[in-house]
Amino acid sequence: MHVLDLAVILAYLAGITWFGARFRSGEKGLREYFLGGREAPWWAIALSIVSAETSTLTIVGTPALAFTGNMGFLQLVLGYLLARILISAVFLPQYFRGEMFTAYELMRRRFGERVRKLTAAIFLVTRALAEGVRVFAVSLVISIVLGTGEMASIVLITGLTLFYTIQGGMTAVIWTDVVQMCLYVFGAVLSLIVILGKIPGGWPHAVAVAGAAHKFAIFDFHFAPTMEFFARPYTFWAGIVGGCFLTTASHGTDQLMVQRLLSARGQRDSRKALLASWALVAFQFTLFLLIGILLWVYYGGLGQTAPAADRIYPQFLWSSLPPGLAGLAIAAILAAAMANLSAALNALSSTVVVDFLGGGAGSAGEAGAMRRARLATVAWAAVLVGIGYAARHSHSVLEAGLTIASIPSGALLGVFLLGVLTRRPGERAAIAGVVAGLTAALVVRFETPVAFTWYVMIGATVTFSCGLAASWLGRALARMR
After folding, report:
1. pLDDT score of 411 more than 80
2. CA atoms of 415 and 424, how far apart (whole Å)
3. Nearest to 342 by CA among 14, 40, 54
4. Residue 91 CB coordination number (10 Å)
5. Contact at 8 Å (CB) between 434 and 415?
């Protein structure tokens, strides 16, 4: 390792930790700790949304998808836009009626305490598993750079992120997200320029070679009602339908994202942040897919064996960039990892404290609630370290994370839609729908070749329809009595 690279990486780690910890002075209670006092501007929340949904999985896994395939992943991004429009119209008006700290308070208001705890528990399990995979993904980068073991890498990043998250709460999370997103996008642009400089003939040559191999292909409009069709994750139909359901669930019912929307100054700012985040997401996915294509051209021109797909981008950065720039690029990847991890820690702890321990708007004993919030944050950090270590055998870190999140997300989305779009179904019908939706998603995952992009749609449809059916059946039985 060059001493300049090490100095850049250490300077970043120390600087971002110090920057996040500075926000402790402004945090006085749960409203500040979990919602940042609702003082952040919409553009900062937009950047924070993108930063929170990016993670190291995106930076490591997206170039790998283009390296081994093409730009078909962008079809999902079209569904992301449709989902944001639906969330703005359907969910945001509900979230801004009164003051909420978590998404699952909406379920208590509509169905009762048991459904609130059920949906919150599903989120906790899902988010913990998905974040564990993300924590492992960053250990791939650290192990390449420092040559340390995976466990030591996981503990290092989690410990530093925990420090500033527990100090500054949501305010620290949002503003460190802003800094970290700017850094990792800058690092990606820088690496793209460097890769182009290493390809003889530059961009024209890369376009000619990759174009001939159909690497720039985006759309696949093929449709057939067969199992083979549904087994393909990146088609136009999977992108529009599956991407829409996936993002409606993740941004409309998952506390990781809803917490950011609730942190806005009002519903209008929340909507602006959500819609603006789509343009940023589309840009960054395009950027990372282009990097994967250029790496394919680069290694193909050299005629040498490339590293494993999930290691190809960080390995190139570390081995090919000049001293100083390599350290900056690796620091950018760490920035994405820490931004996502801090968001998860705050969302997990807010769900435990508000939905299970009774903290929230108007709760008594703010000092005790704050202590519980910080203890919950520490406890979840330890859980994520354990899951991250256990996730080291994942085949594709990006698809592994998306698959884990997709299985229960359909049930969450289905019960939220049941609560928002209907009036008659009650608590028992909602619980029956959730159980049916989870069961359907698990059966599809383990008993069929259907791709992960369809899991949320299937789970949501089954949950919603079974909830309605259970409500109708309950009323019919009551009339018979």
Report:
1. yes
2. 13
3. 54
4. 23
5. yes
Residue of higher predicted confidence among 311 and 451: 451
Location of structure tokens 């961009």: 203
Reading the block at residue 206, the tokens are 């890369």
For the whole model, what pTM was predicted?
Answer: 0.83
Percent of the chain's residues with pLDDT above 70: 89
Q: How many CB atoms lie within 10 A of CB 162?
A: 22
Task: Tell which phi-psi region holds residue 55, choosing left (phi > 0), alpha (psi between -120 and 50) or beta.
Answer: left
Is 445 part of any domain? no
CB 460 within 8 A of CB 437: yes
Question: Do 271 and 92 touch, CB atoms closer than 8 A?
Answer: yes
* pLDDT in the model for residue 451: 81
- Helix orientation angle between 455-480 and 427-447, rounded to the nearest 10 degrees: 140
- Domain-located, residue 473: no
> Do the beta carbons of residue 292 and residue 59 sit within 8 Å?
no
- Residue whose entry in the numeric block shows the structure tokens 């599903």: 122
3-state SS assignment for residue 475: helix
Exposure string over 133-161, b if 16+ CB within 10 A, otherwise e: bbbbbbbbbbbbbeeeebeebbbbbbebb
Cα–Cα distance measured from residue 99 to residue 360, given in angstroms and rounded to the nearest whole number: 9
Count the neighbouring beta carbons within 10 Å of the beta carbon of residue 51: 32
**Does the pLDDT of residue 273 top 90, yes or no?**
yes
Structure token pair of residue 200 = 């003889």
What is the enclosing helix (H) or strand (E) of 402?
Answer: helix 397-421
* CATH code of residue 340: 1.20.1730.10
Judged by phi (left if over 0) then psi (alpha if -120 to 50, else beta), residue 222 lies in beta
Residue 101, in any domain of the structure: yes
Give the count of alpha carbons within 13 A of 255, CB side only: 35
Q: Residues 353, 369: contact at Cβ < 8 Å?
A: yes
- What is the extent of the structural domain holding 90? 3-393
CB 227 within 8 A of CB 327: no
pLDDT band at 28 (very low <50, low <70, confident <90, very high): low
Q: Evaluate whether residue 227 is within a structural domain.
A: yes
Contact call for residues 294 and 206 (beta carbons, < 8 A) = yes
Polymer length in residues for the chain: 481
